[in-house]
Design a protein that fits this description.
alpha+beta; elongated; 2 domains; single chain; 8-stranded mixed β-sheet; 3 helices; 207 residues
């Protein structure tokens, strides 16, 4: 290989690396999702710490219980339960457990990013209240009193009043005022449809 060819190859490699770096640069919504993910992990850590404390109390009570035929079995059961909770807490703290950011009615606001959920932080299915066009729909998460205008959502195969059973993730951008089919104006939250990292198909590098 001549020096000229070597320089061209090095330039091509550097250019490819730069293109890939730009392609993999997280978007503002990706960063919002990552921040929401950290918040969700902190909430789960608090929940698991409370669970560990409760199971420690259960184990102490089991040891203090009056002797019986099943006392030994009960103590072993509480030990296993405590060890399981401690393991879950360690995995959550270390990032070994995947968490899914959630948006409940109480934390619905501009800048929020995550999947529609209830106040118990359980992801919920959504009902299609109205299909606006090929890439826009008004949806109502199960258990919510309010609907949300969602841009960028694929509506092919969806129908009004149909149910989307897979959790829907969005980035809330603000509010939208629109005219209903009855002619009245209504203002609801507006959001952009978002495909979270765990749902993206990662392309294998070319051989």
């Amino acid at each position: 290989m001549s020096m000229f060819q070597a320089k061209r190859l090095a330039l091509a490699v550097a250019l490819t690396a730069a293109i890939l770096a730009v392609a993999e640069e997280p978007t503002p919504v990706d960063r919002a999702y990552a921040k929401a993910e950290q918040t969700e992990r902190a909430i789960e850590v608090m929940r698991l710490k409370k669970q560990v404390r409760q199971r420690e109390t259960n184990l102490r009570n089991a040891r203090r219980a009056k002797p019986s035929q099943r006392k030994g079995d009960y103590i072993r059961e509480q030990r296993r339960s405590l060890a399981d909770a401690q393991r879950q807490l360690a995995d959550m703290r270390a990032g070994r457990t995947v968490v899914y950011p959630k948006i409940a009615p109480s934390n619905m606001r501009a800048g929020a990013c995550g999947g529609f959920a209830n106040e118990a932080r359980q992801l919920r299915v959504v009902t299609v209240t109205q299909i606006v066009d090929a890439n826009t729909a008004i949806v109502t998460p199960y258990g919510w009193d309010a609907s949300v205008w969602v841009n960028g959502v694929p509506t092919t195969g969806l129908v009004d009043d149909g149910v989307i059973r897979q959790a829907m993730y969005v980035y809330v951008t603000g509010t939208r005022t629109y005219v209903t089919v009855l002619g009245s104006q209504r203002t609801i939250f507006e959001a952009d449809y978002y495909v979270p990292p765990h749902r993206r198909i990662k392309k294998k590098p070319a051989p």
